[in-house]
Design a protein that fits this description.
It is built from six helices and no strands. The chain is mostly helical.
Length: about 180
């Protein structure tokens, strides 16, 4: 009876967690998009300068600043490089979040931007959406979690079950 309740609790827990997954992925993607938009606006002036003087080559702009005899320009090269790298990283992150929900889930689970992931997790608002992706995700995760617990229970039961050894009769005792 206890195992039956454990299965039900596991399934319900998996269902609730699974329902949250699409919402979390959506909030994560919105944060990535907001950060990418902000850095692209902040970087726009440097991109315009690179367009005007270096044919759009930001690396050439950075090299020019780094090679300058003027210390503030050399320091500015580090700032431009950091902004440019962040812009490239966030643009790549947005590209990774395009496509089907399952691809997005795996990306957020396995290769997220750690900073934005932590930011999303700390500000995440738990909801119980009743849309198709949330219901599908909830059922899939619930079934997988229930199957995992079922397999663990079966393995534990098998290991703890006493074993009876039967010895075949190979000879009859003498009288």
């Amino acid at each position: 009876m206890l195992a039956h309740y454990l299965r039900l609790i596991t399934f319900a827990f998996g269902l609730l967690i699974g329902i949250q997954v699409p919402g979390f992925v959506d909030q994560y993607a919105k944060r990535v998009s907001a950060h990418q938009l902000e850095i692209s606006q902040d970087f726009a002036g440097f991109q315009e300068t690179a367009n005007q003087y270096y044919g759009g080559d930001v690396e050439a702009l950075i090299s020019h600043h780094a090679a300058s005899a003027d210390a503030p320009f050399r320091d500015e090269a580090k700032t431009i490089q950091a902004m440019y790298q962040r812009l490239k990283d966030l643009t790549a992150e947005l590209a990774a979040l395009r496509g089907p929900l399952i691809k997005q889930i795996f990306h957020v689970a396995l290769r997220p931007n750690r900073e934005i992931f932590a930011e999303t997790r700390s500000a995440y608002s738990y909801t119980v959406p009743l849309n198709l992706p949330a219901i599908e995700s909830g059922i899939i995760i619930a079934v997988l979690l229930a199957a995992l617990v079922e397999a663990l229970l079966a393995a534990i039961t098998h290991l703890l079950r006493p074993r009876h050894h039967r010895f075949p009769l190979t000879h009859t005792p003498r009288q």
